[in-house]
Specification:
The complex is a heterodimer. By secondary structure, chain A is mainly α. Helices cover 59% and strands 8% of the residues of chain A. In chain A, strands 1-2 form a two-stranded antiparallel ribbon. Chain A starts with a strand and ends with a helix. By secondary structure, chain B is an all-alpha fold. Classes of the chains: A mainly alpha, B mainly alpha. The A-B interface holds A 27, 31-32, 34-35, 39-44, 47 and B 180, 183-185.
Chain lengths: 73, 185
């Protein structure tokens, strides 16, 4: 998936656990894992808003575009 | 929740009805051959009936045991397709009872039901011919009969099979949408 969700990086910076983040944004840990591992097909704006609020960051901090060519390098 | 309970209840009822049908249908067929009178073998709806000889059928009471067994076994041909359909439906309703609507399994069952319906109608003329021949065996050789019949009733079933195939395609689309939805966070 060319769009990456860099939750792990921000979680490390904020010293927050995945479990706490999942509770804060009211999704299951399984769904959070789907987001982190790039298996998600789509992200709702409401989820993105909740993530930004919980992690005190901008959407651009969370989302990164990497083309297939760059991924294979 | 009430809606889900209704679905579960109805699916359970339908599943058990199919399972009971699987057991009872062959028994009823056997009872028919043992006890019931025989009705003349006529396809009232068929318009393409070709009859090679005008010959009456004897009643079941006059048939020998071997002929009854033969008739019963030949009747198992359409019955096997009917039983297969009931079996597939029971599996399908079991999945629906578990609220599994758009899975590969349910789509596969629906497709298989359509296939069974088509094959049953392809085999039907051969069953009719065999059935008529078996029943006319007690007749003198010049009065034995082989009937071929394929009429509106059979065509209706084939048309129904195509609708079932369409339903499978629509369910496949539903499965894709469900997958998409399940991976939307």
């Amino acid at each position: 998936m060319p769009i990456l969700v860099n939750i792990d990086i921000i979680l490390a910076k904020k010293k927050m656990r995945s479990k706490d983040l999942a509770e804060a944004i009211d999704i299951t840990e399984q769904n959070l894992s789907i987001l982190k591992t790039g298996k998600a097909r789509a992200v709702r704006l409401s989820t993105l808003e909740a993530l930004c609020k919980a992690l005190n960051c901008q959407p651009g901090d969370l989302l990164e575009y990497r083309s297939h060519d760059e991924s294979n390098l | 929740m009430k809606h889900i309970q209704k679905i579960r209840l109805l699916c359970r009822f339908l599943r058990y009805s199919c399972l009971i049908g699987i057991v009872i249908a062959p028994i009823l067929n056997a009872i028919y051959w043992i006890h019931e009178g025989f009705r003349p073998f006529v396809f009232k709806d068929s318009q393409f009936l070709i009859q090679f000889a005008q010959a009456p059928f004897i009643s079941i009471d006059e048939m020998s045991s071997w002929l009854k067994i033969g008739g019963f076994l030949v009747d198992l041909i359409p019955y096997s397709f009917f039983l297969m359909t009931l079996y597939l439906l029971s599996k399908l309703f079991k999945r629906y009872e578990k609220m599994e609507f758009f899975s590969q399994s349910t789509i596969r069952y629906i497709r298989q039901i359509g296939l069974v319906l088509v094959i049953s109608q392809l085999v039907h003329p051969f069953y009719v011919a065999l059935h008529s021949f078996i029943l006319s065996l007690p007749n003198p050789p010049e009065q034995r009969l082989i009937l071929f019949a394929y009429g509106p009733q059979e065509i209706k079933v084939v048309f129904l099979a195509f609708i079932v195939f369409l339903a499978a395609l629509i369910m496949e689309e539903g499965r894709r949408l469900q997958d998409e939805h399940s991976l939307t966070i």
